[in-house]
Amino acid sequence: MTDLSSRNPDWWRQAVVYQVYPRSFADADGDGFGDIRGVTERLTHLAGLGVDALWLSPFYPSELADGGYDVADYRDVDPRLGSLADFDAMVAEAHRLGLKLIVDLVPNHTSRLHPWFQEALAAGPGSPARARYVFHDGRGAHGELPPTDWQSVFGGSAWRRVPDGQWYLHLFTPEQPDLNWDHEEVREDFRTTLRFWSDRGVDGFRVDVAHALAKDLSEPLRDLGAPELSADATLDRLPPGTHPFYDRDEVHAIYRDWRRILDSYTPPRMAVAEAWVPGARRALYARPEELGQAFNFEYLQAGWGAEELRGVITGSLETARAAGASATWVLSNHDVVRHASRLILPPGTDGNAWLLSGGHAPEIDPVAGLRRARAATLLMLALPGSSYVYQGEELGLPEVADLPFEVLQDPVWEQTGHVNKGRDGCRVPLPWTRTGPSYGFGAGAAWLPQPESFGAYAVEAQDGTEGSTLELYRAALKLRRKLLAGEALTWTADAPAGVLDFVRGDGWRCVTNLSGTALPLPAGEVLLSSGPSAAGSIDPDTTVWLG
């Protein structure tokens, strides 16, 4: 493979990026946890798949209170995952194979084990050490009440009291104290972190919770007046840019500052924002003078219907174009039910209730789910912009919905009082071989149990097998490289109801049948199909690429 950035510094605009959740990807040392050497040893799988880059979820020192998103040191590797030398070897091998590397950056909060937070706890109220975080006196006669009614994303108050009586803010778990981005020392430390990883050859950054850094800490702190609502649900209640801790206008100065650093490298380092905000606001994060790209979750959240998907695609392309960015598309990641299961759930299904039932209420047809997932993927890969794929989706992995409660690791399970089952079902370690104690993930058992069905999904089982999901991804990504031209599409005017039909700039045509009945196959050479159809037709839940 050729290093794309050697020809085009904007390689990321239409890249296919593969998300690696390192603890569940490959275990090289046999301790049950995936590690950096495991990633390195399996990079040939990604190169053979045909992706352009890998995005590495957090690998930093962490107590794993939130799957690694509680970072104790932003410029090191968790010893359980390896060392900086292992990281450097991974970067070198990725680049040798023509793969770019994007790493996760978690700037909203640290781990409670971070030296700064330990110093803040020891220093006491009013100290310079506490000023790096959001500490505040409580309300009530003795400060016994939280400073505001702000709620944690994972449930309950977003404030935790410390023994000296003050409270600190944690928008996620109590083990993840929020940083104070008004503090210049915080800003400078992240400038150092950006340079540290860029100097080691990292090609870009995925910015976690990019919309939450700036907070209104002016006195008196503002209540939201809706403690019954989640933090996310309060965003629409206020004028854009004025929420006390989400999507504030001031956050964009931070990213303009970062862009100057990212552009100081040759080629410039890319960045993509995880910003759960409406499209017009999301476009601000994706401006060229800021991060350059932002995740678009509307495609992931859309139902399996032609009208809804067409609206999402059209709106997403318009939003990206307005920002001077390219669109992004995603179907699965480490936070959501895998799309091979999610897309076949009946409309209106409560996903958490389905997980709590072990995936039995309602029962779903995994064959039908996989067929729909393959069609959705081929549709996504035909769209202009960058596609982000999650490890294991190239194998067609379903959600592991029946994980026993006693093995769950996601803090959501405990923090919601065993009401929300959490995200472990999409984080079960990958199967590489048909057999073995962890299906080739490692020498022994994996940190989350894998179902017996995983053997049939393994890379070994699908490699070279005609019609397998793995071979479909390989064929699609190889063909996509040849067909890409421009960043526009034109909808076909006479498409039947329930069909998505568009043409890319060079005449490449994508047709997806969501109508529920077989339809005549349009004229043209069939380049690739997500599944079999009767001669001359395109069956339901099928996407076809035509030349």
Summarize the structure in words:
- The protein has 547 residues and is an alpha/beta fold.
- It has helices at 4-7, 36-41, 43-49, 84-96, 115-123, 184-199, 251-262, 279-285, 298-301, 306-323, 339-342, 351-356, 366-382, 411-415, 454-457, 459-462, 469-483, and strands spanning 16-20, 53-56, 100-105, 135-136, 159-161, 167-169, 204-207, 270-273, 328-330, 386-390, 489-491, 499-504, 509-513, 519-520, 526-529, 537-538, 542-546.
- The protein has a seven-stranded parallel β-sheet. Strands 11-12-13-17-15 form a five-stranded antiparallel β-sheet. It has a three-stranded antiparallel β-sheet with strand order 4-6-5, with no helix packed on it.
- Helix 6 (184-199) packs parallel to helix 7 (251-262), helix 8 (279-285) runs parallel beside helix 10 (306-323) and helix 13 (366-382) runs parallel beside helix 17.
- The chain starts with a helix and ends with a strand.
- The model is unreliable at 1-6 (pLDDT under 50).
